[in-house]
Amino acid sequence: MKILITGAAGFIGMNLCQKLLHRGDQLVAVDNLNSYYDPSLKQARLGQIEASSKGSWEFHKLDISDPEALLTLVKSHPDIAVIVHLAAQAGVRYALTDPFAYARSNLLGQVAVLELVRHLPRLRRLVYASSSSVYGGNQKLPFAESDPVTHPISLYAATKGAGELLAESYSHLFQTPMVGLRFFTVYGPWGRPDMAPWLFSQAIRTGQPIRLFNHGKQSRDFTYIDDIIQGVVAAIDQPSLPDGLLHRLYNLGNNRPVELMRFIAILENCFGKKAIIDPQPMQPGDVASTWADIGRSQAELGYHPMTSIEDGLRQFTDWFQNHVSA
Ligand SMILES: NC(=O)c1ccc[n+]([C@@H]2O[C@H](COP(=O)([O-])OP(=O)(O)OC[C@H]3O[C@@H](n4cnc5c(N)ncnc54)[C@H](O)[C@@H]3O)[C@@H](O)[C@H]2O)c1
Description:
This protein is an alpha/beta fold. The chain has helices at residues 11-22, 39-51, 67-75, 99-115, 155-174, 196-206, 225-237, 260-271, 295-301, 309-325; strands spanning 2-6, 26-31, 57-61, 82-85, 125-131, 178-183, 186-187, 209-212, 219-220, 223-224, 247-252, 258-259, 276-279.
């Protein structure tokens, strides 16, 4: 099956490309390799994909907020059957520095990718990344797909929520099945340097203090990368959406939230070293807790996260120590 993947050089993109190539799919992959974090990590991920590709993938350095460039690309691949759209400006805090990066990639880029459905006669479905952040200040736990998501508390969340609404309208207008996946704090080897597993590991390793927001009174439904990839592949392969729907949202989380202090204790164990904690007030845009209700994705996608936080962090820290000492 030919699949277009955006954000292929990203954390989730790389892991997905490897999985799909391994099972024999043909990939057309794009990424603009921007410098939100060190582009050499993105280049290294592309090297990993290349090593497992056996020639059945092609990579294009391309910005999804350039609709003409995207259109030119897909015109030479009219047999694309599935789009997996992962490219986005990620991260909650960076929106206070560069809000327009979010508008370009997550709004204009989302429309440019959705527009492709008009030009791909054999397209079976479009799967795109949303985020647990759309639940915003939701007080009801765990977060279910049927909960209202009208109170985003960060610009990132607002653009991800807008992406869902844009997909809703395009699926209706062009009768194309679409699936939005709300990922919950994904971690694992080849992860992102702006996220807690990497930042905390780096601090423990080098004896620097960990800046712990809301004085550590936070919990996250950390979800291991292999479990997330199982969910994304299930969304690609799902034969049809239930009840004749054209657009469906699924939480991909772990359903086991972890208090940040426990998270740090597990990392201390992995490194055999104590962390230095620097308690800080709550950051604007952050939420205190996330917790995924995964009943719908279990029932309709057969999604079953298997990885405990202890095993997942061991995998991550083993990779991390090799990576930083390479
Ligand atoms: N990792 C998580 O915990 C998490 C949680 C919720 C949602 N998500 C979503 O999942 C998706 C993948 O996240 P990730 O963690 O792999 O992030 P990532 O930043 O590692 O990957 C995103 C990739 O998209 C590329 N990109 C960004 N803007 C682009 C543009 N305009 N044109 C082309 N390429 C562009 C980046 O260069 C990057 O390689 C994103 O949509 C993100 O919002 C991730």
